[in-house]
Task: structure prediction
Amino acid sequence: MRYLPLNDADRAAMLDVVGAGSIDDLFVDVPAEARLAGPVPGLPMHASEMAVERHMARLSAQSLTAGQAPFFLGAGAYRHHVPASVDHLIQRGEFLTAYTPYQPEIAQGTLQVLFEFQTQVARLFGTDVANASLYDGSTACWEAVTMAGRITKRKKAVFSGGVHPHYVETARTMAKFTGDTLVTRLPELLAASDDDAVIADIDGETSCVVVQYPDILGRIPDLAKIAGAAQAKGALLIAVVTEPVALGLLESPGTLGADIVVGEGQSLGVGLQFGGPYLGLFGCREKYLRQMPGRLCGETLDADGKRGFVLTLSTREQHIRREKATSNICTNSGLCALAFSIHLTLLGGKGLEEMAKHSRVRAAQTAQALSKVAGVSVVNASYFNEFAVVLPRDARDVVRELADKGVLGGVSLGRLYPGADGLANGLLVTATECTTTEDIEALVKALEEVLA
Amino acid sequence: MNEINRSGWRPAMGSAGEAEAIETTTGNRGLQLEEALIFEIGNLDHCGVDFDGAIDERLLEGLPSRRSAPVDLPGLTEPEAVRHYTRLSRQNYAIDLGLFPLGSCTMKHNPRLDEKVARFPGFADVHPLQPQSTVQGALKVMDELAQWLITLTGMAGVAMTPKAGAHGELCGLLCIRAALEARGDAREVILVPESAHGTNPATAAFAGYRVENIPATADGRVDVDALTARLGLDVAGVMITNPNTCGLFERDLKTIADAVHAAGGFVYCDGANFNAIVGRVRPGDLGVDAMHINLHKTFSTPHGGGGPGSGPVVLSAALAPFAPLPFTTRGADGSVHLIEEENAAQEGHAQAFGRMCAFHGQMGMYSRALAYILSHGADGLRQVSGDAVLNANYVLRSLEGVLDAPFGAAGPCMHEALFSDDGFAEGFSTLDLAKGLIDEGYHPMTVYFPLVVHGAMLVEPTETESRGGLDQFIGAMRVLAERAKAGDPLLKSAPHLAPRRRLDETLAARKPKLVWKG
Result:
């Protein structure tokens, strides 16, 4: 077998050293009735590289990919162009096949990348500090809620209706077991986000307010106003960014007063990947540093006085703190953080701004074109690269019919909010720098046909 | 014309002692290259990405909260960026460079076929919210992998979405809690043996349980009598790592499971070490109700310098109905459907306890793991666990003459060999031997874990090491053990030959510098 270096002569010689008659004899501690005599029944035997590749290629061909179709989906996962050098660099074996950098003398490559990543995230978010990444945006969002609970000693979190429904669902699942109270609401198909309603829900028991920026319908909430209202009542503002490219054009949430900023980093470097693996971004004010979840990389000196980096403040982490840890999260999303960091390094601040402008312009052109389709109206007063439209009938059906015509036209709100009849005709449409004029024309044409 | 140098004469090379004294102006030493931070070498005007076409600024109007200046992030052109990250990569140890004997972490070769197929567009270039008819390729990978995991473990169902091992533990405990609540049974306690992974008690606490520790016996296994004596109406379940963190199989797992079930509780098995028994033992046959599988361990998806991982949880028939959304089902026509919020109730999954994360889990890890599993097949996976256990026993028996092996007399180990620092010179510890391994060109083994052994050294060679490679490692370990016993001062200050010497972790924690400020 191509992945197993031992041959039968090796095995025989090694069994002699071990003093066992066969490999099976080494499993003597397993109760005899639980030991299988041969391969697990009901499964195929080994296969060549060529055969496996052929099988996987056949499966892959059964998907309609983003690159094959006019593509307008977003809602927390965005299609951006990833430079070829990103994927090349993350496949260097020294990054790809390294472990968590617990031995810093021989892991400075990974550690310096994490230090650079933390600095990039902090600058992007406008926060004092950032961690070395979490699983994804949804788990980062819940971690922020529990962190706010630890800081404020309160257990009620107020969610804007503009927070991604999967993030709310993830929090709701966890809150059932932790006893936190979540105040949640559905989004409404209105031009502006629900800032005032959220502010009205804040009271003296509120630990945090969770606001997505831009929100699930693409609208841009007034973070400074919400931050002021929250902080006046002793609550923290958690800003959620599912599309970090937006921050190339929009002011950073930390600068606008958010105490904790979390996000999904997938937009940069990672690609769509059918939803994972992605990476959770997490930044906050320096004074909350020791309440922060996840791994942290810090600068220090070695025995010769040279600058170096180590994982630090691990006394917050569960492999040390056991039941007193700040978070259940053990692994971060190292390789995705590397991809994110390389992409952001290739862009720099000005490149990110240019990428954001192209995305916004393509979205504006798409919105203008869709608003001319009979029966379609654009909901948003403000948006970055994603906006909602109202269709004359259930958007779930329309999306499927568009797909039958080879157009991936957006995300139906019915898919995201299955029980909410008032949202069923809503469709989220996203454009990025990848969107072409031909894509927009194809969407308009297909939509006109489907709605005719 | 010069004569050919038939004698092979060349100038003397100088001694190593002389080379050490050489100072270089760059700080580089030959191929060992220093690299500054991007904030020191990049600037706002450098960019490695070009965009097509001019921007119609009018279409940017009306954007609220518009920033007044670009984010203060340095950029690099492509050649600068490629060099920066390539130079950094060379400061890392990795499996591709050599044996990585990190016990309990399972650092085995990552097949490159898996990298290739994970990038196939039908898996990598599809959006999680596309209509299901357009993502059949990705859904079939999820479903095919799910079927393999269920069959290999002899369980009834699997929750695919947990994003790593600890997340899987949490998922398993939430299934247990949901099952207990569904029968109106509010139990409060989870029993965790001392030899458990540190994540186990943390996870139980996060799931809202009170954690009680169960001691280990002198031979490194769970104290069955102590555990069964503690069972009662308040115990929701036990969390057992099998094979355990001492590298031993918990012989009494079935007995424990029967007792826990009789007392109305559930058995969570930490499957971090499933690679030791895959293809030979089905945890379902031992009475396990839930077990996470680290795809990055047993099924060799790359560790990536600390993630991403993936931690699907296989479930018994009693727990499967409570598995979180979403998951796949296969229709009579062979097409695969996702069960999610939209259709869970209609499809008979109203008891699903909720959602662990956005979207559908770690697709990129599923495709890699499936390619690995299909390559090995049922016969190959059996050989995988066999060779992993053989390699660990070979290391154990080759080193027990020079290093104390606290459970060596108890019989064969599983996939990892455990040693202690007993016999080292005064003032010398496991850490010194570990750092000495770095100078020999190896990543250290896991140190000071498990906690039940003094100065623990947990060596996991994995099945992807050759006999010759193991012999060289064993040779290095023998010399290092002798140096630790003799109290060699050069070992105390190791490593000497790595890109950095020992780093001051106290300084890092006392005055945390987590971002670059110039």
Remarks:
- DSSP finds 14 helices and 13 strands in chain A.
- Chain A touches chain B through 203 residues (CB under 8 Å).
- The longest strand of chain A covers residues 206-212.
